[in-house]
Design a protein that fits this description.
The chain is of the alpha/beta class. The protein folds into 3 domains: 2-98 and 295-308, Nucleotidyltransferase, domain 5, CATH 3.30.420.40; 108-287, ATPase, nucleotide binding domain (Nucleotidyltransferase, domain 5, 2-Layer Sandwich), CATH 3.30.420.40; 328-524, Alpha-Beta Complex (DHBP synthase). The protein contains 17 helices and 22 strands. The strands form 4 sheets. A 10-stranded mixed β-sheet has the order 13-22-21-14-15-20-16-19-18-17, sandwiched between helices. Strand 4 (66-70), helix 3 (77-85) and strand 5 (90-94) form a beta-alpha-beta unit. The radius of gyration is 23 Å and the shape is globular.
Length: 525
Amino acid sequence: MIILGIGGLLGDAAAAILRDGELLAAVEESKLVRRRTHWGGLDEMPEHAIATCLRLANATPEQVDAVAVVRPIPESDFHLKLRAQFPNSRIIVVEHHLAHAASAYYPSPFNVATVLTFDRGGDFRCGSRWLGHGGEMSLEHEQYLPDSIGDLYGRVTELLGFEANVDEHKVQWLSMSGDDRFKTLFLEILNVSGGGPRLDRSFFSTERMTSGGFGSRFFEHLGLADGAAIPESLRAHVAAGVQRAMEDAVIRIAGEGTNLCVAGGLALNALLVSALETRSGYKNVFVQPVAGNAGTAIGAVLEAWHGVYKREQRTPLSTLSLGPAYGAAEIKQVLENCKLRFQYMVTTDEIIETAVAQLNDHKIVAWMQGRMEFGARALGNRSILASPLNPYSTENLNIFIKHREPFRKFAASVPAELCSEYFEVGPNARYLATVGRVRPAYREQFAAATLAGDLVRVHTVDKEENPLYWKLLHAAGKATGLPVLHNTSFNLFGEPLVCTPRDAVRSFYSSGIDAMFVGNFFLQK
């Protein structure tokens, strides 16, 4: 049975495909069209993502048995298009938060779990609570707009001069430089009681369309004139207030239990995930790493498989390398078409040896290998790498290559079996979904990647999942004594993660990256 999933249609559109319970492919439309996908209407489809998933699954539209789509409207021209494109398919409509919940529970390692979803809003809901048991989930509670934790966080994002629904991660990292002076204020606004928050609307203005819509009472608590811009001296403290209040609110809503699964846009917040791992009343926490709207494409196919077709076979999330890969002939054609000089390396050992030499020479290295990752985080297939021993890595990566704020740190990739020697971190570090702590003996080495005190974004690399990147880390360790590399996503200037060899070439020559590996091909400036 082949099931195609379509999600994120009103932002971050994506497709995924499942064959007989195995997730074969998942990819976002934005990475293929090289722009953000904010749709103009409900009748548009992520055609490129759909075509890519079908190609990776070696399937035709006529072979698709079901199309599971995350949409609020059951019938429209969109569905007529689906029926025309997939003539032999059953069309299954999956509610937004059900798709979030399915994307978290069904790939988890738990047979029984509490499932929570939190986002800014979808289908007039902003959160839900489910009980997962075996091959099914049952709804326990729903949270409705406007009482949305995610909406409050988005409002603060706008208040601080960032773009709501896009830059919430910037608020998260900015919060690391702030204190708790405004935490009580945001807890009062959230007003958590019973099953969820009841936002105090007296802190908002129904007439103000800017500054997050906050009203005079809110600005009074900040010690500012009504509608005033947040001064630089308060920005980090405001960010810290909403971040820490949000963490406490979610932990209170979660309650206690053994196993917890989480998804929804708010679950992309790595500091929240860390708080759930370390401070909640749950022994085990699993966060769907592509927790936002794109991940609902996976949730759609899994809900169809389990909830509609009642199949018991679970689908573990064994990898996020679910996008396209490119062979040597395709890569060579692009490089030659661009009139570039390159070196072809015959063996894996030669690739590794050359990459380590570049990194040891304090070069910034772009690393494009294998299948593109699903989600916004680079996990060693579409990465920019630097040695932790490079004293200028922060300046070079953030300012001269990524052109982003200094408070946005990069991750530290480490072989999973060696992680505990250098870091304390939970299992969600496998997909960069949480943060960890640097052990005291290594704080100086990782100072460039440290968020605040001893916190760091940790990425554990499993040998079976990504053998080439795992081998590179070990080779770096053999050469320097430190089997860790700084890792940030291979994308520039607000673009999505690079997908094709041509995307990689464009980013390489538009930045201060020193060298690049695309498959077996090596380029340097």
